[in-house]
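Handout, section B. The chain below has 171 residues.
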Amino acid sequence: AAVEFAKARGIAIHARSTFVPGRETVVVASAQASRSVVGQTGVCRLIAESPDALAFATATLAVAAVPMRDVALNGTRGSMTLSTGLTPDWLAVRDALTRDDISLVENLAAASVVGIDASHLGEFLRVAREIGVEPLSISACGPRSWMVVEGTRLDDLVRALHTHFVANQTV
């Protein structure tokens, strides 16, 4: 019923697959890109001090089916963002990652804006900084941009992003 309602009114529905990471299906295309802001708690930043540590971490996390995002290796140092809130036994996984060359920054959150691409990252960053939020990382892929921040600032950031990108629809 909801899909038929959306089709009749030209509302775009973006459905994310829970079975295949990174897959998205547009059910109905609309003339103007729709936007939404989503906040996610239970985010962790993993920092690996060597390529071997990053390889160990990705293998360990894959076995535990922990969602990984923004996996990067710059020179000899690697990092990634983890969705610990979606991990049934995060404490056991965290223990399995215990090594001298891996560190975890917990109690983080992510704010995403669906409907803006990388061309809006400067504005995305400006909105965060106007309310005193400095992101730990910022990324974009397709029509989605996100930033990782201290967990205590998530609600303020989501409100500011919603006001700017959704309520005003100025960009």
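Note. The beta strands are 14-16, 24-26, 36-48, 68-74, 77-83, 102-114, 137-141, 144-150. Compare this with the example in section A.
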